[in-house]
Amino acid sequence: MNFSSWHPLGVAPNAWNVNQTDADITRPPLEPRPITITTETKTLRLDLAKTAIIVIDLQNDFCHPDGWLAHIGVDITPAQQPISPLNRLLPRLRSVQVPVIWLNWGNRPDLLNISAGLRHVYNPTGEDIGLGDPLPKNGSSVLMAGSWGAAIVDELDQQPQDIYINKYRMSGFWDTPLDSILRNLGKTTLLFAGVNADQCVMATLQDANFLGYDCILVKDCTATTSPDYCWLATVYNVKQCFGFVCDSQAILEGIHS
């Protein structure tokens, strides 16, 4: 086999090396970077080389006073609580090459992949402001890809290497490239953050668990505008059925040690 003049194809670790005569499809693994963190149920040893964080729906329509949730009368104060801890956690994760994945509602303009039942969630009478409709305050189309409402709130730090994925259901794995991207990157451990904990975060985390990913809910980087019992049930179910729960400080300490 001619090992000279290799050209990489793909994204490590799911990458080949090729030249005119040969192809190396061994896919060398990434160098392990194990850390230990404390969760609410067990002490975990995980590999940062196989880890990504998914930050869900921290966008204007859910977290800004001029967004859709506030327009329909929801107190969005809880949805803003993850911002500060995430601004402490994300730079440290980036520094150890953990990908930051922003997973936001961002629908097609024609809503052709959105069912009537899903549209009903956002406009139960058919007479209010729902998916794709302009908000009275700023004209932004609700949860539309490319709109102000679908954009991440300004208070959160973003970087060029971050990954952006639009979703169209409460689960970010439904009809999106999220699973393919994670598998290409060789990520098997997923940290979850964002809003709402009991809806889009939980649905995405559950699907991740069903697909075989190891799931960790980062408690102080997650919130909900739902009643407290919804939050308590979410935390309980994650610990009982779908993964682990920790706070961001445990991750920071694990990286630092």
From TrEMBL:
<dbReference type="Pfam" id="PF00857">
    <property type="entry name" value="Isochorismatase"/>
</dbReference>
<dbReference type="GO" id="GO:0016787">
    <property type="term" value="F:hydrolase activity"/>
</dbReference>
<dbReference type="InterPro" id="IPR036380">
    <property type="entry name" value="Isochorismatase-like_sf"/>
</dbReference>
<feature type="domain" description="Isochorismatase-like">
    <location>
        <begin position="51"/>
        <end position="249"/>
    </location>
</feature>
<keyword id="KW-0378">Hydrolase</keyword>
<dbReference type="InterPro" id="IPR000868">
    <property type="entry name" value="Isochorismatase-like_dom"/>
</dbReference>
<protein>
    <recommendedName>
        <fullName>Isochorismatase-like domain-containing protein</fullName>
    </recommendedName>
</protein>
<dbReference type="InterPro" id="IPR050272">
    <property type="entry name" value="Isochorismatase-like_hydrls"/>
</dbReference>
